[in-house]
Amino acid sequence: MTTKKMAIIATKGTLDMAYPPFILASTAAALGYEVQVFFTFYGLQLLRKDLSDVMISPLANPAMPMPVPMPVMVQMLPGMESMATMMMKQKLKKHGVASLTELRDLCLEAEVKFIACQMTVDLFEFDKSEFIEQCEYGGAAMFLGFAGDTDICLFV
Question: Rounded to 5 degrees, what angle do the CA atoms 24, 57, 64 make?
Fold first, then answer.
């Protein structure tokens, strides 16, 4: 029997967009898939050693459930991003959802391969010491070599 494969492209580094690639990758790996996640542009933030400062923004996020309706002008006020992040982290904890670090570690334990986009690293002049040691560095061609042969390919 051939092992199923899943490829995920993670392009965003906000709290709300960090969960889907980690949840999908860890679940697929638990189901026996070979999984690779390609982190590019802002998604590269998810490979930083410390994920505690990953934020969520209520601005331009109309589907975000808020306890009370918030006009756009209020969402732009200083401190709203921090407040929204705090509220989301409390909600995640209250409902027993794993933290980003826990989910990322789960992926690594399940042998999900993390690829950091070398072009993005160079573009934003990141130092590789900022990222977890378990990631590899490569370009689109490297990732597409895997993604072109997958059963499932997702852009998150």
Answer: 70
